[in-house]
Amino acid sequence: MKKSIAVVTSTYPNYSGKEAMEGISKAGFKYIELASAPDYFEHIPRPEIKVDKQTVDEVLKDCKNYGLTLQCIAGHTRLMKENSVENFKKVLDFAGLAGVKFVTTDTGEVKNKEDQKKFYSDIREIGDYAKTKGVTVCLEMHGDWCNNGKIGAEIIKTINHPNVKLNYDTGNVIFYGNTRPETDLHFALPYMGYIHLKDNGSGKYKDWNFPALGEGIIDFDKIFEMLKDFDGPASVEIEFEGKEHSLEEINKAVKTSYDFLKKHEVIE
């Protein structure tokens, strides 16, 4: 099982896109997932403000200069907010111009039945628009609603749209869902378009602890065996314990993760 595995630049929350590109490339990775999350990290120009071919080409040129292929865009923190559908369509415009096939996001804060009704209406409209751009939107295990593979699978079945799938996150199902990925992943597999490979340092519910791959408690031997049935791409995500880390520390963790993937012979 060898896959095109990127690093999502949310791993570099306090650094620029180019700094992230340099560290990811030097670690040995060939693919990147650029994050665009307003107020948190913006490693592509804000799509809500400007989407044109020149802007997109400049981003692609930067990736190429570091030997990286833009595989995915993480377009988080938009759904369920004001103007969320129109804003998210701008992210899809960017992906379409860039030739990117996957955009990851979360469901937003869905708290009740009315929220669910709005979410399902919005996501179907987004799915229709994504189809015109050749993009698949992948919903992550994130927050208190879509927090494990079993629930995520039911959400995707309810949406019932070919351009909306799951982005399974191996660390988030522990943090948000109090569920181990080794026993949960199989529920999601038939409905997945993407996966975030994230370790968990403690295995405790709501304990923010996401170290380099191989330095936590997740049994990735079992995860990689299960992923033989999954033909989609992946990204590594490292978020440590929620404290600010130096660029050197982040780059070291990214390199550790790359070496872990090479050792397990799962990365192209």
Briefly summarize what is shown:
The protein has 268 residues and is α/β, with parallel strands linked by helices. The protein has helices spanning 17-27, 53-65, 84-98, 113-133, 149-159, 172-175, 181-188, 220-226, 247-263, and strands at residues 5-8, 31-37, 41-42, 69-74, 102-105, 136-140, 164-169, 192-197, 234-236.
Walk me through this protein's architecture:
The protein has one domain (5-263): Alpha-Beta Barrel (TIM Barrel), CATH 3.20.20.150. An 8-stranded parallel barrel has the order 1-2-4-5-6-7-8-9, surrounded by 6 helices. By secondary structure, it is α/β, with parallel strands linked by helices. The protein has helices spanning 17-27, 53-65, 84-98, 113-133, 149-159, 172-175, 181-188, 220-226, 247-263, and strands spanning 5-8, 31-37, 41-42, 69-74, 102-105, 136-140, 164-169, 192-197, 234-236. It is built from 9 helices and 9 strands. 40% of the residues lie in helices and 16% in strands.
Task: Give the topology, please.
Layout: E1 5-8, H1 17-27, E2 31-37, E3 41-42, H2 53-65, E4 69-74, H3 84-98, E5 102-105, H4 113-133, E6 136-140, H5 149-159, E7 164-169, H6 172-175, H7 181-188, E8 192-197, H8 220-226, E9 234-236, H9 247-263
Parallel strand pairs: 1-2, 1-9, 2-4, 4-5, 5-6, 6-7, 7-8, 8-9
Antiparallel strand pairs: 2-3
Helix pairs in contact: 1-9, 3-4, 5-7, 7-8
Sketch the topology as an H/E string, one letter per element. Answer: EHEEHEHEHEHEHHEHEH
The tally of strands reads 9
Shape: globular
Through-space gap between termini: 9 Å
The DSSP helix count reads: 9
Structurally, how many domains make up the residues?
1
| Average residue-wise pLDDT | 95
- CATH architecture assignment name: Alpha-Beta Barrel
Biggest β-sheet: count, sense, barrel?
8 strands, parallel, barrel
Low-confidence region ranges: none
What class would the helix/strand composition place it in? alpha/beta
Tell me the fraction of residues in β-strands, as a range: 15-25%
